[in-house]
Amino acid sequence: AKWKSVIGLEVHAQLDTQSKLFSGARATFGAAPNSCVALLDASIPGTLPVLNKGAVELGVKTALALGCNVSAVSMFDRKHYFYADLPSGYQITQQRAPLARGGSLSFPVFVPGVTKAPYYKTARLHQLQLEQDSGKSLHDPYERKSLVDLNRAGVPLMELVFEPDLETGEEAAALVKELILILTRLQSCSCKMEEGALRVDANISVHLEGTPLGTRTEVKNIGSVRAVAQAVDFEIQRQITVLDGGGTIQNETRAWDSAARKTVAMRDKEVVQDYRFMPEPNLPPLHLKLDESVESSAADGLIDVPELYRTLPELPEQTRQTIVERHQLTSTIAITLVNDITLYEHFRSIIDGSTNRSPKLVANFLINELLTMANRNKLEPADTGLTSNQLATIVDMLQENQLNIQYARRVLQELLDHRDDNASSCPQAIVAANKWFLITDESDIRRYCEDVIARNPKLVEKYRKGKEKMLYAMAGEVAKASEEKVDMARAVELLKEMLK
Questions:
Q1: DSSP string, 212-256
Q2: By the 8 A CB rule, do 139 and 83 touch?
Q3: Please, which residues have CB within 8 angstroms of residue 355's CB and are 6 or more apart in sequence?
Q4: In angstroms, rounded to a whole number, what is the distance separating the alpha carbons of residues 326 and 346?
């Protein structure tokens, strides 16, 4: 029997505002403990929430980018639960009337070596809501103490609840990756998952084809794109193994252990927790201006949704289409470039810097050489320290036949090894110092060819008897003798002429 997996994601993104959702305290990551706490955040009696307009605008822009139906009127609710890092005993969220509903996210799924070719998947968005984050509890098992830091309490969150439209861990990771690209373009979230700015919960179940959906488990607070794929795939396989062994899946919350690379049980969900939702009495309904025909006096002070729509930047999928149409590149190349923010920024900067540069050469160099070099050194492209000017210089030297690809790789590695050394920061200086320039002088190439022909009479004889492959054997000898510095295209032409 064939098992089918069903995955739905819930994503919490911290909105990139200067202050918190309902107070004027700074929303700064990494500040000293409890240094960014207003009286409201500490739930001091008599304090009242005031909604952050900037947070609402960022939420609306995100909803528009995802094609959601923005609500003309949304409401805030109290969600009650008792944690030490939630002093008020409730979280202000949007349960009954969220900021936006509907919408969808279409995204490419492409992992070299895993997926044979890119394909597109669409996940529907159930709703997008605003809410406040909780504080942070730090537990010391040796001192047997727990400390509470309220810096994060009240930081504005945007929760995006996706329908269960995904089937694999790679699809889940691709959705998160696309969402990160969109939120980064909108500047609505820093998306630094290592700082907790973006957190992913995955709801996962498996069932046999033609049968009802199975019992789902929830994997909480997954902290990286790669971990999303790993956690989802592990949990799918764990559930299949349990069911194949005659067991049953428990409706529970699990956590992803990145060190052990497995999910571990946290708590069961058999008893539905009563959050006792109630309307937030200290916040009025949030009204937005949706219709441009409404008179300005009637919409005075309201956030102008049509105006925000006009400020939306080009989104990642539009950029992919532009690359394909304007530069005549394949969709696979466009997906690879756009999916890495640093690669795309390098591509755009190098292409914009000169009209003579070949887009295909630039794209292939960035993907096949820079990305490969970064992976080999276990770095992200953003961590290589290489500038677009340095990369553009190498591309120009390749295009002008001053350098071949083998030595371009050496230049890249040299820049990578000495990225803190200013003396080694110029690609041309590295090439000159190491005498890596391509040999293009006709007389020099001819001398290498003559020498190889003289030293390999047997290869020459076989070639003249019709074994044309011997030509490339001799070309290999030319490359070897010149330490791969000869212009091989011209060397092959000269070999053909001389062997006649």
A1: -----EEEEEE-SHHHHHHHHHHHHHHHHHHHHTT-----EEEEE
A2: no
A3: none
A4: 17
pLDDT band at 332 (very low <50, low <70, confident <90, very high): very high
Give CA 190 to chain center in angstroms: 11
Containing H/E element for 14? strand 3-14
Tokens of 256: 């992803």
Alpha-carbon distances of 382 from 379, 385, 415, rounded to whole Å: 8, 7, 14
Domains recognised in the chain with CATH numbers? 3-279 (no CATH), 316-434 (no CATH), 442-499 (1.10.10)
**CA dist 84 to 81, 134, 151, 376, 433, Å?**
10, 10, 14, 45, 63
Helix (H, G, I), strand (E, B) or coil at 388: helix
Q: Among candidates 166, 210, 156, 222, which has minimal Cα distance to 22?
A: 156
The one-letter amino acid at 108: P
| pLDDT score recorded for residue 357 | 93
If you ran DSSP here, which 8-state letter would residue 366 be given?
Answer: I
Q: Output the pLDDT for position 87.
A: 92
Q: What is the pTM of this model?
A: 0.89
pLDDT at residue 64, as a whole number: 98
pLDDT band at 498 (very low <50, low <70, confident <90, very high): confident
Burial of 329 (0-12, 13-18, 19+ CB in 10 A): buried
The string of pLDDT tens digits covering residues 184-197 is 999 999 999 999 99
Query: Which two tokens mark 65?
Result: 């980018």
C-alpha span between 370 and 379 (Å, rounded): 11
User: What pLDDT digit, counting tens, does each position of 243-263 carry?
Assistant: 999 999 999 999 999 899 999
Phi-psi domain of 162 (left: phi exceeds 0; alpha: psi -120 through 50; beta: other): beta
Question: 141: Cβ–Cβ under 8 A, 6 or more apart, which residues?
Answer: none
